[in-house]
Amino acid sequence: MAIQISPSILSADFSRLAEQAEAVAGSADWLHVDVMDNHFVPNLTLGLPVVESLLKAVSIPLDCHLMIEDPDRWAPAYAEAGAQSVTVHAEAARAPVRTLREIRAQGARAGLALNPATALDAYADLVGEVDMLLLMTVEPGFGGQRFLDLVLPKIRAARELIARSGGSVWLQVDGGVSQETVERAAAAGADVFVAGSAVYGADDPAAAVDALRAQAEKAAGQAG
Ligand SMILES: O=C(CO)[C@@H](O)[C@H](O)COP(=O)(O)O
């Protein structure tokens, strides 16, 4: 499985988002855009107008993570705007199958996110409807939290589920991913790594992306 890195803009300087996106465009695979509404999570960031502007200004594909209530209403619009990947939370979606299909119908990759306490089994039947499964490794809402090792068994179970379903679904982890934690997430089976503070808190964000990728590739190779 190819390792991918998706730096989270939550840890970037919001006054110069496009510049911060371009700082990692040569090294990262995606830019992870944390959309928060202060309802589904206790934090407020940005919405569709900012994503539309970013899409015009940056060269890196956008991996939009909707931490919002009523994603069924909003998610297809992000895909229609040109976001290359749109992820909705299982806990918030009322009609996840319809919403995931609408995202795909707009030509974007469709992702389903699960909070740390949300059981994978409850959503196993949806694996055929998604291009990516996102397992939160912190409670969503804020950057800079500690990676929750209690999610590691769920990462392993998700990797097995994906293998049984044909193996094409990407497995993303988000929260507390750093040089200290990326190896155990990769060894458990994750292949797409969101990292905020570990990238934008570094003196050289592009070099931090390269270092995370190298560590994840090594750990995934050793696990595989
Ligand atoms: O979605 C979230 C938090 O809700 C994440 O994207 C974090 O923002 C990642 O930041 P670090 O934990 O890597 O600092």
List the helices and strands and how they pair.
Layout (H helix, E strand, L loop, with lengths): L3 E4 L9 H8 L6 E6 L11 H10 L4 E6 L3 H11 L3 E5 L6 H10 L3 E6 L17 E5 L15 H13 L5 E5 L7 H7 L3 E4 L1 H4 L4 H19 L1
Parallel strand pairs: 1-8, 2-3, 3-4, 4-5, 5-6, 6-7, 7-8
The structure holds 5-O-phosphono-D-xylulose.
The site of 5-O-phosphono-D-xylulose has 22 residues, from β2, β8 and α7.
Explain the overall architecture:
The structure is a single chain. The protein has 224 residues and is α/β, with parallel strands linked by helices. It has one domain: TIM Barrel, CATH 3.20.20.70. The chain is 37% helix and 18% strand. An 8-stranded parallel sheet has the order 1-8-7-6-5-4-3-2. Helix 2 runs parallel beside helix 3. The longest helix is centred in the last third of the chain and has 19 residues. The structure holds 5-O-phosphono-D-xylulose. 5-O-phosphono-D-xylulose binds next to strand 2, strand 8 and helix 7. Its EC number is 5.1.3.1. InterPro entries: Aldolase_TIM, Ribul_P_3_epim, Ribul_P_3_epim-like, RibuloseP-bd_barrel. It comes from Streptomonospora mangrovi. This is Ribulose-phosphate 3-epimerase. Its cofactor is a divalent metal cation; Fe(2+); Zn(2+); Co(2+).
CATH class: Alpha Beta
The low-confidence runs, each spanning 5 or more residues with pLDDT under 50, are none
The helical percent reads 25-40%
CATH architecture field: Alpha-Beta Barrel
Anisotropy-based shape: globular
In total, the number of strands is 8
What percentage of amino acids are in beta strands? 15-25%
* Small molecules held by this entry: 5-O-phosphono-D-xylulose
Main beta-sheet strand count, sense and barrel state: 8 strands, parallel
Spatial sequence of strands, sheet with the most strands: 1-8-7-6-5-4-3-2
Mean pLDDT: 97
Succession of helices and strands = EHEHEHEHEEHEHEHH
Structural class call reads: alpha/beta
The end-to-end span amounts to: 9 Å
Catalytic activity: D-ribulose 5-phosphate = D-xylulose 5-phosphate
Pfam family, one: Ribul_P_3_epim
Binding site for a divalent metal cation: 32, 34, 65, 174
Function: Catalyzes the reversible epimerization of D-ribulose 5-phosphate to D-xylulose 5-phosphate.
